[in-house]
Amino acid sequence: MIPITSLQVVINEGMVEKEVDDHATEVRIEAERLFHIGLGGRVKRRKVRELVRRERVDLLALQETKLATFTAPFIRGLWGLEGMGWCCNPTLGRSGGLLIMWDNDKGKLVHSFQGQGFLGVCLE
After folding, report:
1. Residues 6+ apart with CB under 8 A from 66
2. Mapping DSSP to helix (H, G, I), strand (E, B) and coil, where does residue 90 land?
3. Which pTM value belongs to this model?
4. How far apart are CA 68 and CA 114, in angstroms?
5. 73 vs 95: CA distance, rounded Å
6. Which secondary-structure segment (H or E) carries 113?
7. Spatial distance between the Cα atoms of 41 and 44, rounded to a whole number of angstroms
8. Which of 14, 21, 35, 98 could form a Cys-Cys staple with 89, CB 3.0–4.6 A?
9. What is the pLDDT of residues 8-19, one digit of tens each?
10. Helix %, strand %, coil % for the chain, to 5?
11. Residue-range domain boundaries for the chain
12. pLDDT tens, position by position, 54-98
């Protein structure tokens, strides 16, 4: 199980479920801005990579990605660090895609499960 750090920013359809402090608020605003404009451009992906590095993110889950396919080079470029794992559920029709990325040093994939509109991972 991945331990939760003191910084928990959960973005779910533009709503914040928990904010710890002013720093978490700043990160939430930055993340919402990035995810509302999408990941199609190189600059946007670089911003996500910078956010992952700066905040030492252990697990990042993205919804409504609008990407029909995910490739290992694309995911590595988005995460920006070595030793990462990922699972995805690509866009299907008008339903947005889902992507979960994590630090393999914090948890190894035991199994994943997915269906239309959901994606989950069990890490150990």
Report:
1. 38, 40, 91, 96, 97
2. coil
3. 0.68
4. 16
5. 24
6. strand 109-115
7. 5
8. 98
9. 444 443 444 444
10. 30, 30, 40
11. 11-123
12. 888 888 888 777 777 788 888 888 888 788 999 988 877 777 788
